[in-house]
Amino acid sequence: RECKSKHLQFVSGASYTAYWLGNFIFDLASYLVTVAISFIIFFAFGQDWATSSSSGFGTFLLFLLYGLSGIGFAYLVSFLFDVHSTAQTVIMMLSFLVGFLLVLLMYFLRNIDSTKTAADVIVFFLRIIPPFALGDGLFNLVMASALSSIQGDKSPFDLDVAGWSMLYMGLLSGVFLALTMFIDHPSRQKRREMMSFKATHNAPAVTGEDEDVVKERHDVEGGLRPSDVVQVQGLRKEFDLPSGKKKIAVQNITFGVKPGEVF
């Protein structure tokens, strides 16, 4: 949105659906490269909790579901920002705080008798955020592996291990992407622009116009061009600047386009 590349693609004829699905597929493919590198590191350092025959597939599925849900979640959060670098920084910080520090905090609170009940309820809501769901699932996988000699082997798909996290992210994957496409749909943008259009306001008169411009205005406003296929009367466009002032881009322009005329 910042550099208007999306707008340029739409003007060039790109499909709205193809644009978002194309971005989603590209981001997912890029993410899977990171997942592959992570598993190489797991194998290199002998992390059996993530690579063993009993947990390997579950761990991979947990990462995959995080990619499917996390990408759509990042799209949604990005709508809160106008600068892409700021959005990227905030999302990275949010992922660290929620996916690591908050997971540890919830673990300690769930092991304190006075806060256990409240923490168990809060966790169910926090799993809506994909970074927390991933962090919680990975933490439970590690704990299940460490306590296997005492509690016995547990499947990664057990609800008290990574099952809840997988379920949340699996269900929310399509929801986040659907919400993104709904919020950014061209019809909604058009509706917002129409709501901001003030048809009752008259643009101030322009002085010092060229003779051909004055004649065009006179003919269009006087109804002397009934055959025009397009007519614009008194169009004015302003942009809000960060300083609070307004920048006038178009001031009281009037013109008509005749049939067969290239404008």
Spans of at least 5 consecutive residues with low confidence: none
Taking the sheet with the most strands, its summary is: 2 strands, antiparallel
Radius of gyration from the CA trace? 28 Å
In terms of structural class, how would the helical and strand content be classed?
Answer: mainly alpha
Strand tally is 2
Quick one: overall form? elongated
Mean pLDDT: 88
Distance between the termini: 27 Å
* Percent of residues in helices: 55-70%
Strand line-up across the major sheet:
1-2
Helical stretch count? 11
Query: Which range does the strand content fall in?
Result: 5-15%
Secondary-structure element string: HHHHHHHHHHHEE
Please outline what is shown here.
The chain has helices spanning 5-11, 16-44, 48-51, 56-78, 84-109, 116-126, 130-146, 148-151, 159-183, 186-196, 211-221, and strands at residues 230-240, 246-257.
